[in-house]
Amino acid sequence: AGASSDSASESGYVTDGKLTIGTAEPAYYPWVIDDKPESGEGFESAVAYAVAGQLGFADSDVVWVRSTFDEAIAPGPKDFDFNLQQFSITDERKQAVDFSSPYYETTQTVITIASSPAAGATSIADLKKFSIGAQTGTTSLTAVEDVIKPDSQAQVFNSNDDAKLALQNGTVDAIVVDLPTAFYLTGAELDGGKIIGQLPQAEGTTGDQFGLVLAKDSPLTASVSEAVDALREDGTLDELATKWLGSEDTAPVLK
Amino acid sequence: MSTTGIDARPPSSIELDRRAFRRQQTTRSTLIAIVSTVVFAVAAWIFVINTPGWSRVQQTFLNWDVAVAAFPRVIEGFWLNVRVLIYSVIGVGIVSLVLATVRTLRGPIWFPLRALAAGYTDLFRGIPLIIVLYLVGYGIPGLGVFPRMPAEFWGTIALVTVYSAYVSEVFRAGIEAVHPSQRLAARSLGLSYSQSMRRVILPQAVRKVTPALMNDFVALQKDVGLISVLGAVDAVRAAQIETAAYFNFTPYVVAGLLFFLLALPMIRFTDWYTARVRRREQMGSIV
Amino acid sequence: MSTTGIDARPPSSIELDRRAFRRQQTTRSTLIAIVSTVVFAVAAWIFVINTPGWSRVQQTFLNWDVAVAAFPRVIEGFWLNVRVLIYSVIGVGIVSLVLATVRTLRGPIWFPLRALAAGYTDLFRGIPLIIVLYLVGYGIPGLGVFPRMPAEFWGTIALVTVYSAYVSEVFRAGIEAVHPSQRLAARSLGLSYSQSMRRVILPQAVRKVTPALMNDFVALQKDVGLISVLGAVDAVRAAQIETAAYFNFTPYVVAGLLFFLLALPMIRFTDWYTARVRRREQMGSIV
Amino acid sequence: MSLIEPGSGPGSGPGSGAATPDAAPVLRLVGIRKSFEGTEVLRGIDLTVHRHEIVALIGASGSGKSTLLRTANLLEQIDDGQIFLGDDDISDPRAKADRIRSRIGVVFQHFNLFPHLSVLDNVTLASRAVHRASRVEAERRGLELLDSIGLADKAREFPDRLSGGQQQRAAIVRSIATDPELLLLDEITSALDPELVGEVLDLVRELGRGGTTILMATHEMAFARDVAHRVVFLDKGVVAEAGPPAQLFEHSENPRTREFLARFTA
Amino acid sequence: MSLIEPGSGPGSGPGSGAATPDAAPVLRLVGIRKSFEGTEVLRGIDLTVHRHEIVALIGASGSGKSTLLRTANLLEQIDDGQIFLGDDDISDPRAKADRIRSRIGVVFQHFNLFPHLSVLDNVTLASRAVHRASRVEAERRGLELLDSIGLADKAREFPDRLSGGQQQRAAIVRSIATDPELLLLDEITSALDPELVGEVLDLVRELGRGGTTILMATHEMAFARDVAHRVVFLDKGVVAEAGPPAQLFEHSENPRTREFLARFTA
Ligand SMILES: Nc1ncnc2c1ncn2[C@@H]1O[C@H](COP(=O)(O)OP(=O)(O)OP(=O)(O)O)[C@@H](O)[C@H]1O
Ligand SMILES: Nc1ncnc2c1ncn2[C@@H]1O[C@H](COP(=O)(O)OP(=O)(O)OP(=O)(O)O)[C@@H](O)[C@H]1O
Ligand SMILES: [Mg+2]
Ligand SMILES: [Mg+2]
User: Fold this and answer.
1) Which ligand is in closest contact with the Cα of C285?
2) Closest ligand 1 atom to the C-alpha of D64?
């Protein structure tokens, strides 16, 4: 499915002959290593290049742009062909943007630091009395409110960065992030970082599925989804997940 | 329709004719205004509201169902804003008065305090509130010397820090705006510097700066919405959460209207008061 | 040390004695100020700087290495703030003048426009900028009627929207602050309403409101930092990114200082100008 | 101070003496009534000013002098009565107020000059904006006028560089720059230093000699007596007495007039 | 207006006539010099005011009258010379300025009363704050004083409800409420409507009769002539002439005095 021969408007690509991929500013480990998506290092970066390959683009035809989380999933024209920064696929979001089929499935995970009073919590009931933070607009926040249902209002931050700072400086006792981020934050970023456990799925739902975000009704949605499906079927996605995200079942699921 | 004078003599026929003409003119003006408004509304309807884009706008920004759904959360957040506002006003009042007082201290021994107060005022008039919020809200708790406090506490501290600088500057300007002859008159009566300050200058200064203070109050009312960046779920954050849930921007409009309704009485009052002060000044009794 | 008069006659011995005494007093005052400052500094050192908490503060907020590392990114972001500021100032100037002009239009036919302008001014004086930012920055692109624009573009639009309301209100207040007898004098010369507006009232109004305009400019300078919430990598967001990378708040301090340095000349100029206007008024030539 | 040349006023009789009552009326007020918030300030005023005449309006503070002058200039809407300027009923709402005002010159007590314009621009503004005179022509005439009152060297200065007396003289000259048919002066000296009063009154005297028709409210009794052809004493919104100065000041039989004048001869 | 009772002034000679030069000097200025930004405004002034004496300071605008009064009250620091109040050299920087000022009453042209205080509070402020009188005592005396000038019914009003003349009278009464040794008046009538000037000058006249020592700058020549015991003519920062009013106003041989006075007799 080479795009080079089509005109921009017909091809649906932002720039004719190029594949423009959006990600976060900054993008974090383990999704993107060193905030350099061009390197192909990191799970999402690698997935992006794999999808590009499936679509018939050479690595050199990939152009990276940056956007915030909110910006990328708000309705409106986009400056990327697709965007990936751990967007969970939800029905509400589907009204605003298109999603490819999922490239990764994860769960929401509660983490804390050793000095926090929440460090000893072992169940959802234990967590209720603590101040819990999450990033605004994410399924992490939904998980806090629907699964943990803390006694006090959840604290909601513009970004995981702010949530992490709040955890470090003690304004919140624990934060909820997706599992790979949880591994990364507790392993590399937080002094005394500690995973309390994964949150169970709310009834009747699957785990959080990450999808590539495309503009609403993008002509590319079908072909991008096909590409992701192909990668899933040939085992590439699992391979990349194992390589960059490690094994994910080490954290206990909270009851 | 009758004379307004005390002795209600009937107006002359010429005057009656003039009044009839003026009434007719007024009626004409009113008619023109109505017609113009209708024409304008129709034009707006044809060129804006009736377009497909408008229904999209309406759907996105003015969706009644979303407004109803978002309202409980937004109003709950708004209540937090109001509480923060109240504490901030109290804090700003105290800190700015202390600052202003320190700046009026005379005598060389107070020099370092004066300089410190002046420097503080300068600094925080120049730094954006959002930076102070980040510094105070994320930085200070990180020092580990204070017990754990909720985000809105640190937000209040940041607001008080910044607004005290503005307000103490307003007080200072007010002190300088009191006519120098008032100070001279007070000193001529034998009042000391601090007596004339306390009993003559400050009371007048406070009146003079009332409009400016009210303006600052309105600004504070709105900046209270910034505490959301610290993680506090105030009206703005609540609206954001609801917006993310529905992909519909009506919750922001709801929050905006709540802030607007909170600010409106103060804005009206400020305008009225400012106009009154100005009218008095323009009457200009000069003795 | 000599008389300041034109005929430089030598001062009397009494005067020389008085001057010696005053000089001595000045010296004493200076000494007291120095001693007081030193004492104060030492006390501060002992009670604040010398504590273990302080080194923590220093480490967290005033870390030179982090400042150096963060500087390139922050200054690049700051340059975006400056560009947004410039465009915003131009936009606010145009929109607010149009609004103020519309509000001075007379005649019933303009009623809907006047009402619209007045409503606009009221509304956006009451809604927090951050809400307008979210609405404009995330909502309007979602309508799908505008081509894709960068976040800073929408940020500029939001700033212009809100600040035009303030500034047009300032203009209106300025027009009303021109003494009514100026309007009477102009009308008595036979100038029409619009002629006296243009040639007599507006020029004076603009001067009267200069201090208020400058204040609004300073406020705008700082609110430009809020475009960061839209995702534009300005100085604030750059600082945020760097802070997250180091878990050190020095980048915010760097950004804050940049804003402070940008605002300081304007603050100083505003203070100076306001004082000058006040001094002139207090001289009070009344004819 | 050089004389205002004859011809600069609307009439040109040089040094014409007291105007005779049978000269053409310039301003005619008939039964003027005016209330503010239920208080009747003018209670049926009849007053005529003839061509080349100087009429002084005297009366206690609050008697309605300023209000009367403002109604004559249509700055205040009357409640009843009629105002004629020449033959035109200018109190008719159909009359063009701007056109009429440009036929009347006015000087108030305060704030007369426009502070943002040079003295010359002040003087020439009306000619240029209202009468569409060219800038060159307007400035030529403006400089001539300023020269006649010894202010030619201040033409490019801004008003706040002038003394109060100079400002008031410039304001008077501005008001006559467009050859108005009538000049209304409202206590033009009462905000001045006593020393500066003389020069302003001298200018009014000159104008009168030059034939300008003037209606002025004043507290300067000596000046009213010396210069006015007729004095009108306003008391609580009615004309209590009117006549030549000699009669009012020396032989008035009206007890209110005498009481009022007594206050000025302490 | 009822008379200020003898005894309300510091001296008590009721209706004492012109003070004799050999009475005790209350204020003595010796060789006062004062410059503003390089311009010498006072160029060596010698002037003595004796007990119970009223001295009028006349002179053109800018001649330095106000500056002189301000230096006498230590509101302006002099560049040379000496000022004695009674026997104390008050120009000595070691003197306590606040203490000294409380011995001198001052009234300016403008802005005298404190607009945020009632008339009574204005009058009693100094007694209460400086002299530590009890409120009851201060108010009793304040009401007495206000009554003596017919303003007792305005005691609880705020100054902006009073006419200009009433305000100035209240200001004068305020300045004598603490029995100052000397009263300085700086053109206290020049911002007033001409009609209101009389009542203020009447009060000054009463005070003089009551024995208050007064140094006043004024433009009211008639008043200076009638009431002052001595007139001092200031010209460009020096005392050009001084003497009894009759001498200055009628028989002055100083050409500058005559020129100045000529301006007031137009
Ligand atoms: N715009 C106004 N609104 C209400 N009352 C007014 C207004 N203008 C004048 N008055 C009242 O009308 C009365 C007459 O005022 P006016 O200024 O005409 O008197 P005047 O004779 O000019 O007095 P003065 O000698 O003090 O100038 C006064 O009682 C005044 O308070
Ligand atoms: N604070 C000051 N700074 C600079 N110049 C001053 C100051 N005060 C007064 N002067 C100047 O000193 C001169 C004398 O002023 P002063 O007010 O004493 O005159 P005056 O005789 O009271 O005049 P008037 O009759 O107008 O009140 C004037 O030229 C004035 O401009
Ligand atoms: Mg008047
Ligand atoms: Mg003076």
Assistant:
1) 2
2) 18
Q: Whose CA is nearest to atom 3 of ligand 2?
A: E36
Q: Rounded distance, CA A250 to CA A112, Å? A: 16
E34 Cα to chain C: minimum distance (Å): 8
Q: Do C127 and B256 touch (CB under 8 A)?
A: yes
Chains B, E: CB contacts under 8 A, how many?
Answer: 74
Distance B179 CA to ligand 2 centre (A): 17
Chain A residues with CB under 8 Å of C233 CB are 25, 66
Please state which CATH class domain D1-23+50-79+97-103+181-266 belongs to: alpha beta
pLDDT tens for the 287 residues of chain C, in order:
444 444 557 888 888 888 888 888 888 888 888 888 888 888 888 877 777 777 777 888 888 999 999 999 999 999 999 999 999 999 999 999 899 888 888 878 888 888 899 999 989 998 999 999 988 888 887 777 777 788 889 999 999 999 999 999 888 888 888 887 788 888 888 888 888 888 998 888 888 888 888 888 989 999 999 998 887 888 998 888 888 777 788 999 999 999 999 999 988 898 888 888 777 766 543 33
Q: Report CA-CA distances (Å) from C145 to A77, B58, C230, E77.
A: 9, 14, 19, 72
Domain B69-178+205-281: homologous superfamily in CATH: MetI-like (1.10.3720.10)
**Ligand 2 pocket, Cβ-based, cut-off 6 angstroms:** E 36-37, 41, 59, 61-67, 187
Measured CA to CA, the distance from residue B159 to residue B87 in angstroms comes to 10
Chains near C with 3+ CB pairs less than 8 A apart are: A, B, D, E
Domain range list for chain E: 1-23+50-79+97-103+181-266, 115-180
CB E148 within 8 A of CB E4: yes
Ligand 2 atom with minimal separation from the E70 CA: 18
Q: In what order do the strands lie in the sheet with D25-36?
A: D39-50, D25-36, D80-85, D88-89
Share of chain D above pLDDT 90, in %: 7
Point out the residue among D194, D196, D266 whose CB comes nearest to the CB of E198: D266
- ipTM value greater than 0.85: no
Alpha helices in chain B (DSSP H): 13-44, 52-61, 64-104, 111-126, 129-134, 140-142, 151-177, 180-188, 193-196, 202-223, 235-246, 250-283
Tens-digit pLDDT profile for residues D36-90: 888 888 988 899 999 889 999 988 888 888 889 988 888 888 888 889 988 888 8
Q: Are A101 and A126 in contact (CB under 8 A)?
A: no
pLDDT classification of A9: cutoffs 50, 70, 90: very low
Give the start-to-end residue ranges of the domains of chain C: 12-49, 69-178+205-281
What pLDDT is stored for residue E14 in this prediction?
Answer: 35
Which of A88-92, A102-106, D189-193 has the largest mean confidence?
A102-106
pLDDT in tens, D135-161: 898 899 889 888 888 888 888 888 887
Element (H, E) at E40: strand E39-50
The answer to whether E93 faces chain C, any CB pair under 8 Å, is: yes
In short, whether D230's Cβ falls inside 6 Å of ligand 1 is: no
Rounded Cα gap, residues C63 and C59, in angstroms? 5
Is the pLDDT at D14 greater than 50? The verdict is no
Q: What is the C-alpha end-to-end distance of chain A, expressed in Å?
A: 47
Contact list, E193 vs chain D (CB under 8 Å)? 61, 190, 219
* Chains in contact with B, where contact requires at least 3 CB pairs less than 8 Å apart: A, C, D, E
Q: Is the pLDDT of residue B115 over 70?
A: yes
Contacts of B22 in chain D (CB under 8 A): 93
A137 interaction partners in chain B (CB closer than 8 Å): 240-241, 243-244
Secondary structure of residue A132 in the 3-state scheme: strand
Q: How many CA atoms lie within 13 A of D82 on its CB side?
A: 17
What is the β-pairing status of strands D214-217 and D39-50? unpaired
